[in-house]
Amino acid sequence: MSPWERRERGGLYYTRSKKVNGKVVREYVGGGILGELAARMDAEERLRRKEEAVAWREEREHLEELADLVDELCEDVETITHAALLAAGFRRHKRAEWRRRRGPRTGAEE
Amino acid sequence: MDREQVQKSKLALQPYEDRPVGCPPDPDLSAMTKEELDTRRETVERLRGLVKKAEKGDKKAVPEIREILQQNPDLAWRFTNVGRVAEWSLIEKVTKEKDLASKDMMSFQLESMREEVAGSSPSPLERLLAERVVASWLQVQLFEGLYVQNMGNLSIRQADYYQKRLDRAHKRHLSAIKTLAQIRKLGPAVQINIAEKQINTAG
Question: What residues does each domain of chain B span?
Fold first, then answer.
């Protein structure tokens, strides 16, 4: 919906729509130079927000890439550590503590 | 394979303890080709699957794990390089582009920290875990720094993102410390073949 509303007398009137308590409410700003000025300010504000959103998205993507490098390293090192411990004859007790496997190894493990 | 590549692979196969103490080589980015990365990922994926099986009681998984570790004796060393690459990227982010002195100083500090965390005569596994402790610590510093630096200008959504990322980084860092402590606690009774040669764990 255009923010410019045509009045009965023929002039254009600038309006803003905003949400108040979940309902869309129309704010009547003005016509003529006042309306033009408000429209320009709103357009600039929209552009600023859009640019900010793009900048934040780019920053976030970059941060995610950096974090992924460390996250991947952490997960892989954890896997290698568990593999090394299992290979050395340890077992994890209650998904926490590592304990040495008791008794001789079974044939399947040799 | 050209001469340079041969030299690089010789270095990769050189036992860690034979290299200058406190002076490991820079990460060899050129050695991390897509093919090598894919192979490494595939190896770790196989290990991950087998570890899950073994932890569920599948006894056939353990010999397969041993076989993979024996077939990839330089696995730990390769991951040291991955750790350095992650570290370099984080340093780039937290320092200004042309501030070479800060980059250098931070690199040096991290190296000292790594040596301190790894302790004296660390096994390759301990080295690897120390690498992880330092990398995860740096990640905590990054998100903490960014959060504090931008605190006044953050939207609720942005603050929420930083907070969640920071929580995750803390969790990873604590987990890294815990695993290293566990390995040290287990003592010398085991031989773990994850580096260039079979080694005794410290203790």
Answer: 73-200
Interface with chain A: mutation pick from B56, B66, B114, highest number of A CBs within 10 Å: B66
B25-84 residue pLDDT tens: 444 555 567 787 788 889 999 999 999 999 888 889 999 999 998 888 777 777 777 788
Q: Which of A108, A57, A85 is nearest to B125 (CA)?
A: A85
CA atoms within 13 A on the CB side of B72: 22
The ipTM value here is: 0.74
What SS3 class is residue A90? strand
User: Which residues from chain A sit within 8 angstroms of residue B47, using beta carbons?
Assistant: 79-80, 83
Alpha-helical segments (H) within chain B? 3-13, 34-55, 61-71, 75-94, 100-118, 124-150, 156-186
Give the whole-angstrom CA distance, residue A69 versus residue B75.
Answer: 17
